[in-house]
Design goal:
Bound molecules: NADP nicotinamide-adenine-dinucleotide phosphate
CATH superfamily of the largest domain: Leucine Dehydrogenase, chain A, domain 1
CATH topology of the largest domain: Rossmann fold
CATH class of the largest domain: Alpha Beta
CATH architecture of the largest domain: 3-Layer(aba) Sandwich
Oligomer: single chain
Order of helices and strands: EHEHEHEHHHHEHEHEEEEHEH
Distance between the termini: 47 Å
Number of helices: 11
Number of domains: 2
Largest sheet: 6 strands, parallel
Strand order of the largest sheet: 1-11-8-7-5-6
Helix content: 40-55%
Strand content: 5-15%
């Protein structure tokens, strides 16, 4: 019977630290701001949007809301991104996905300046992660180590995508060894599967990435010490696909007709085989939002550090 990893508990601890850091900046007269850009009215996006607003309020981050209609043109959206890039009050920008079909989402995220790309999805952030220039953040907690590290870094590293960053934090919180383990990541999206596989690789796991065209998914998952599933396919990972004692992280979110939420993992059968498992809800989801807030305050600290290096010593 698996131990259930409590994402809410970890998220509360991260948020408590973020709140302290926000208050510290406030003492210097610095406000921390997060921009939220929502185009259209997708129910799932609205849920995430509102949850982020509530979380910002809790930790003292000022949320700047930008809501555009479903019919907005790419130019209108880019103008808002440009305004946010220039806005001194805003330290990070979260663009809610999916954007309307006619909008080229890559064009939008690539327009966010890397210093404010707190979800790490722009090409520069993705490249820095792949080049191992940002991964030092998954080896250390605490902003001050990061800031100290920045003093010696010729280039400024980018922020890590919040969901996979949160998965790594969750594994570390429960002292789960990653080094040398076989991690199977199911899903290869730019937001979750791909960056998570890079982070696990940086932590020296042996990584297998599976996707829709993978033949015989169970053949791979049965070999895994750690399974991370991010597909949005309800019940994809079943008990007979999991090795005895494996760690199972369920990133998927599927909203059922009655409004309830389930993940990719068939919780009941998998919990009998796994050693650790994340629930949905209450697993990776809350940690994602906490990491978004952490990246935002880190952005504010870094900006201030670069402008007045001795102030935050
Ligand atoms: N908990 C959180 O905080 C959080 C954050 C973000 C996303 N999510 C959830 O995580 C899930 C994935 O999100 P995403 O943005 O990565 O979605 P996505 O862009 O739709 O990517 C889904 C990935 O799953 C793969 N896939 C789909 N069906 C599969 C199957 N039957 N077998 C193996 N692989 C399959 C796809 O493969 P191909 O590439 O071959 O098409 C793709 O790589 C969603 O449910 C989303 O709501 C949760």
């Amino acid at each position: 019977m698996a131990f259930i990893m409590d994402g809410r508990r970890l998220a509360e601890e991260i948020k408590a630290r973020v709140k302290e850091d926000v208050e510290r900046l406030n003492e210097f007269g610095i406000d921390v701001g997060l921009g939220l850009l929502l185009v259209g009215e997708s129910a799932a996006s609205l849920q995430y949007y509102n949850a982020t607003l509530r979380a910002c309020k809790k930790v003292g981050i000022t949320a700047y809301q930008f809501r555009l209609s479903e019919n907005s043109s790419i130019n209108e959206i880019l103008n808002v991104v440009h305004d946010i890039n220039r806005d001194e009050r805003i330290n990070g920008l979260l663009v809610l996905f999916p954007l309307p079909k006619k909008i080229n989402a890559r064009r939008v995220v690539n327009e966010i300046v890397p210093e404010k790309d707190i979800d790490g999805l722009g090409s520069i952030s993705v490249g820095r992660l792949a080049a191992d220039e940002s991964t030092f953040q998954i080896f250390k907690e605490g902003y001050y180590e990061v800031l100290n590290e920045c003093k010696f870094m010729p280039s400024v590293s980018s922020f890590l995508p919040c969901t996979p960053f949160g998965v790594i934090r969750l594994l570390e919180y429960y002292n789960i060894d990653i080094k040398g383990k076989h991690a199977v990541v199911v899903g290869k999206s730019l937001a979750v599967g791909k960056p998570l596989s890079l982070m696990l690789l940086a932590k020296e796991a042996t990584v297998t990435v599976c996707h829709k065209s993978t033949h015989d998914l169970a053949h791979f998952t049965r070999q895994a010490d750690i399974i991370c599933s991010a597909t949005g396919v309800r019940g994809l990972i079943k008990g007979d696909m999991v090795k005895e004692g494996a760690v199972v992280v369920d990133i998927g979110i599927n909203v059922l007709e009655d409004g309830s939420i389930v993940g990719d993992v068939d919780f009941e059968s998998v919990k009998e085989k796994a050693s650790y498992i994340t629930p949905v809800p209450g697993g990776v989801g809350p940690v994602t939002i906490a990491m978004l807030l952490e990246n935002t305050v880190r952005s504010a600290q870094r900006t201030e550090f670069l402008k007045s290096p001795f102030m935050l010593e």
